[in-house]
Design goal:
Length: about 190
């Protein structure tokens, strides 16, 4: 029989009778004596008080377990791994998906759009995304043209070697009047 209370004279030197320790509340591998004085070895795997933990399941990687507020929980945060994207328009934004990223992904300007960002396509002295323009403007050739109207539709374009029409002069529609054999006048419009 184990000793659970020791009195020397009138003084109580040891009293385990009101102790509440039990093997399931004592950390695994730790030894102590219960209220009967018997030696016990702890079986509890509890290693931290998680009552003040603030992590939420959405903040822990999906499938990973953790303890918080006295219970075991499983994370739901998606594992996005490597995330990549391409910008193809000036005002385009790339939305960053919620979840874990492994840090190897990249967002960049689409290669087709990058190929357009060359000095010759940008005004001289203007810098866009690290590319300084060299285009100083080329002389454009304007064309002035005279046309004769016709009774059918016409498309008027600059001749080869010209960039645009600066002016189009349309001649007056020719009208001729001649006397005819019936004693009247023949009116001819056009041609």
């Amino acid at each position: 029989m184990a000793v659970n209370k020791v009195i020397i004279g009138n003084e109580v030197r040891l009293d385990l009778t009101s102790d509440t320790v039990s093997a399931d509340k004592l950390l695994s591998g730790i030894t102590a004596h219960d209220k009967s004085g018997e030696k016990i070895t702890g079986t509890c795997n509890f290693d931290i008080d998680s009552s003040e933990a603030t992590a939420a399941v959405a903040e822990v990687l999906s499938g990973k377990s953790f303890a918080a507020r006295g219970e075991m929980l499983t994370g739901t945060m998606p594992n996005n791994g490597s995330v990549s994207g391409a910008i193809t328009e000036k005002a385009q934004e790339y939305p960053i998906p919620m979840g874990f990223h492994d840090g190897s992904g990249k967002v960049s300007i689409n290669s087709t759009e990058q190929a357009k960002l060359i000095p010759a396509n940008l005004k001289q002295g203007v810098e866009i995304l690290g590319v300084t323009g060299s285009y100083s403007g080329e002389a454009v050739k304007a064309h002035s043209k005279n046309v004769t109207p016709s009774l059918s539709a016409q498309t008027v374009l600059p001749d080869s070697g010209y960039d645009y029409l600066s002016q189009v002069t349309v001649a007056a529609i020719p009208i001729t009047e001649t006397e005819n054999s019936a004693g009247g006048i023949t009116l001819k419009v056009g041609g």
